């Protein structure tokens, strides 16, 4: 996998290069072209976008959207295992993406934790290929695969253990279940240290249930994962669409927040317990003993709703529920619950804390002891949400909706390039132009104008706070134009060295970045002209480029 710059789109891309054995036949080249044409049509937020492909002498390549971030495998290795709420947040978009592929006749066939990249807080599936599970192109000249290792076999479906075996949509569902199992427990569903041992376990070993390993996992999540891991493909859900419905059921029922063993022993959900053995196991986990069988009782013919022993408890329960719902939470309780959600650190929990508790503290107790704290937390949550939304837009090349997003995105590009001084200037420009001090407080304004400016600042407040936060993180050592010139000169020198080493694409990427970022900066115009000249010379294949580099160095890097 290589990182490159797409010239026409003017953005960074990931390039996968395939070696063409013996130059490739016409049939294999045609098949490869059909595959990338099919991939280009895929458009889903949880699927890495393909921009096309081509051939270069004895190699073929595919250009994909560049997704930056850790993989799910990295997160599992770092954290051991993930909370079930985080796994549920990841499972829903990934399942929706699988349903999108399956409805178009495409099977992923290699789904695993290392194929899921966490972009911000959103999962993205990578390494999608435009073929169905039985396509012979899987074994073609562009798709060389080494024999699977024991670690790979632990996550493969029993009906297709090898990388070249034909897979179906239900094979993808098994691999989805294996990925969820590993994320919840920290270990693969199948054990084994050798290929022979793992292959045998894959066929005969039954994974330990998630709920018996991680007791706070909802029983509906446990039952769904274990159903996905069924050895028999017909025992798995019929489609990814069915899995989506079951995940929605897990989210709805898990709001009760009771323990897995209590759910299982209650037998309330059809997904929870299916036989008496499971029910007895749940009672053991609860520390309850099995009740002795009782003789049959004579059924009372009186309707149950006419019995006093039913009516009185129900009436008392309804009255207690009305009192509980109508009784307002005090300020201390709301702060305690908000802090608990904020400490979870997930995007959904922070948003829930803001909507359910922080905003209520500010509105119901504006003069309370926690009002100022709640307002600060609201600003922080809104800032993080704005940063995530802007990062997603930049990664997806989506349009920016206002001036604040444009200025912040421009500053982030300078910061990513390494020019912290210019990035600080851009962030400061955002604060000066759209900050609170510029709206609604100037003398002589009409009341209506002041309210309009305050509303405007309220819209831009998250990005203004983000700019202030970014400035606080960046070292403010040098912020003048000489720092920008030093950085550009160093980048040009780096690109020259890369070009002389034969790494033309990497060198061009740096020159393109200099031209794109600093074309409007008159103070560094000579350096921008140097980068433009390098691009022109390398594009025309000039033989005297090495000499021009030498002259540029002798003249002091002008």
TrEMBL record:
Residues 1-248 form the Protein kinase domain. Keywords: ATP-binding, Cytoplasm, Cytoskeleton, Kinase, Membrane, Nucleotide-binding, Serine/threonine-protein kinase, Transferase, Transmembrane, Transmembrane helix. Residues 141-167, 537-558 are annotated as: Disordered. It is found in: Cytoplasm, Cytoskeleton, Microtubule organizing center, Centrosome; Cytoplasm, Cytoskeleton, Spindle pole. InterPro entries: Kinase-like_dom_sf, Prot_kinase_dom, Ser-Thr/Tyr_kinase_cat_dom. The keyword Lipid metabolism does not apply. It holds the Pfam family PK_Tyr_Ser-Thr. The chain crosses the membrane at residues 308-327. SUPFAM superfamilies: Protein kinase-like (PK-like). GO terms for molecular function: ATP binding; protein serine/threonine kinase activity. Belongs to the protein kinase superfamily. NEK Ser/Thr protein kinase family. NIMA subfamily. This is Serine/threonine protein kinase-related protein.
């Amino acid at each position: 996998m290589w990182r490159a710059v797409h010239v026409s789109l003017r953005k960074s891309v990931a390039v996968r290069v395939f070696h063409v054995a013996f130059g490739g036949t016409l049939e294999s080249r045609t098949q490869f072209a059909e595959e990338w044409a099919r991939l280009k049509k895929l458009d889903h937020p949880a699927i890495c976008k393909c921009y096309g492909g081509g051939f270069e002498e004895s190699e073929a390549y595919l250009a994909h959207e560049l997704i930056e971030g850790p993989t799910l495998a990295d997160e599992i290795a770092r954290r051991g295992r993930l909370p079930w709420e985080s796994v549920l947040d990841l499972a829903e978009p990934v399942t929706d993406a699988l349903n999108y592929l399956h409805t178009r006749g495409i099977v992923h066939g290699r789904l695993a934790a290392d194929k899921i990249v966490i972009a911000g807080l959103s999962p993205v599936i990578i390494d999608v290929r435009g073929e169905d599970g039985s396509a012979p192109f899987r074994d073609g000249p562009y798709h060389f695969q080494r024999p699977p290792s024991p670690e790979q076999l632990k996550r493969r479906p029993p009906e297709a253990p090898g990388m070249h075996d034909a897979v179906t949509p239900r094979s993808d569902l098994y691999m989805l279940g294996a990925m969820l199992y590993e994320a919840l427990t920290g270990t693969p569903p199948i054990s084994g240290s050798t290929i022979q041992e793992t292959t045998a376990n894959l066929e005969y070993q039954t994974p330990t249930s998630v709920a018996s390993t991680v007791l706070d996992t909802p029983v509906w999540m446990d039952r769904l994962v274990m159903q996905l891991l069924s050895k028999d493909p017909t025992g798995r859900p019929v489609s990814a669409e069915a899995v989506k419905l079951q995940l929605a059921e897990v989210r709805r029922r898990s709001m009760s927040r009771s323990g897995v063993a209590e759910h299982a022993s209650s037998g309330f959900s059809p997904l929870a317990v299916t036989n008496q053995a499971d029910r007895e196991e749940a009672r053991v986990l609860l520390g309850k003993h099995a009740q002795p069988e009782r003789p049959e009782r004579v059924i009372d013919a009186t309707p149950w709703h006419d019995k006093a022993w039913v009516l009185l408890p129900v009436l008392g329960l309804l009255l207690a529920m009305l009192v509980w719902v109508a009784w307002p939470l005090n300020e201390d309780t709301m702060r305690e619950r908000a802090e608990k959600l904020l400490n979870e650190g997930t995007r959904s929990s922070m948003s829930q804390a803001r909507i359910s508790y922080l905003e209520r503290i500010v509105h119901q107790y504006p003069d309370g002891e926690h009002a100022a704290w709640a307002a600060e937390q609201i600003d922080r949550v809104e800032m993080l949400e704005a940063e995530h939304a802007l990062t997603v837009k930049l990664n997806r090349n989506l349009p920016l909706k206002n001036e604040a997003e444009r200025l912040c995105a421009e500053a982030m590009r300078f910061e990513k390039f390494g020019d912290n001084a210019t990035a600080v200037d851009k962030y400061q420009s955002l604060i000066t132009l759209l900050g609170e001090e510029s709206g609604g407080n100037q003398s002589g304004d009409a009341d209506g104008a002041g309210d309009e400016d305050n509303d405007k600042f309220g819209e831009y407040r998250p990005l203004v706070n983000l700019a202030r936060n970014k400035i606080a993180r960046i070292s403010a050592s040098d912020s003048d134009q000489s720092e920008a010139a030093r950085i550009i000169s160093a980048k040009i020198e780096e690109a020259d060295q890369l070009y002389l080493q034969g790494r033309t694409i990497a060198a061009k990427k740096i020159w393109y970045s200099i031209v794109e970022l600093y074309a409007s900066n008159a103070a560094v115009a000579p350096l921008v002209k140097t980068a433009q000249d390098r691009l022109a010379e390398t594009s025309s294949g000039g033989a005297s480029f090495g000499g021009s580099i030498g002259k540029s160095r002798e003249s002091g890097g002008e």
